[in-house]
Amino acid sequence: MSTPGESSSIFFLGCTGFLGVHLLKSLGRDLPTYNVIALLRDSSASRKASVSELHPNVTIIEGTLDDDAIIEEWSSKCPIVINTASSDHWPSVRSTLAGLEKNSARHPGNPPIYMHVSGLGILSDNCRGESVDPANIRWWTDTSLNLRDCDPSNMHLESDIPIVDAGTRTQNAVRTMIMFPGRTKDNNAYSCLTVLKAALDGKAQEGAEGLYFVGSDQPMIPMHEWASAVGDVRMKVL
Q1: How would CATH label the architecture of 9-237?
Q2: Model-level pTM?
C-alpha cells in the first residue's frame, strides 16, 4: 500500500459528487493500489466509511474548495490530481495549478498529471431557447478545439484556459487533460478512467490537444426536444 504523496497517489477533489462517486469506484476496481487522497467537507466516521467502501486505499483530508493552502499542498505532493468538483470554482483551480507547478519544479522531466472535468457549456451559442437555423450552427470538434475561439462569456473558460496554458508551457509543465461531458452521467466515469489509463501509459493527448468531448454516437437532438422529453417524464412521475 502506498502512502500519501508517493508515486502512486491521486489527489481527488469532488469524489463524493455524482460523477466522482462512480469514478472513485472505478479507480478502486481498476487501480486499487493507488492511494487516493480525498478532499471532504465532512470527515465524520460514517462519511469516511461510505467513501472507503468505494476504494480500498483512501486517505481522507478534511477541507473544502475554499481551502487554498490544503489544495495547493496536496497538489504539490501527488503526481496525479483529479477534479470532478465544481467546474467553475476558479480559486480552487488556481490553487491546484499552483501546487502542480511546484510539483513539476521538484520533478524535472516527470511532470504531474491533472485531469479536470469541465462541460460543453463552453460551446454555448446563448440562444436562450430561441430557434436557430441549423445552417447557422457552428460545428465543433475536440480534435481542433481552441478554447480562445469560444465565446469568452461562456461558463468554464475562466478555469479551462489557464489549465491548457499550464499544459502547454515548457517550464514546470503539467500534463493536463480536460473532459467535456455533454451531461453528467455515470458513464462519464468510464471516459475519465480510459483517458487516465492512457495518460499513465503515455498514450493520451495532453495540453492543447488534451481536450476530450464526452458524448455518444447517437444523432444530435435539439436541446428543446431533450428538455421537453425530460419534462414529460417528470410530469408523469409527479
Answers
A1: 3-Layer(aba) Sandwich (3.40)
A2: 0.89
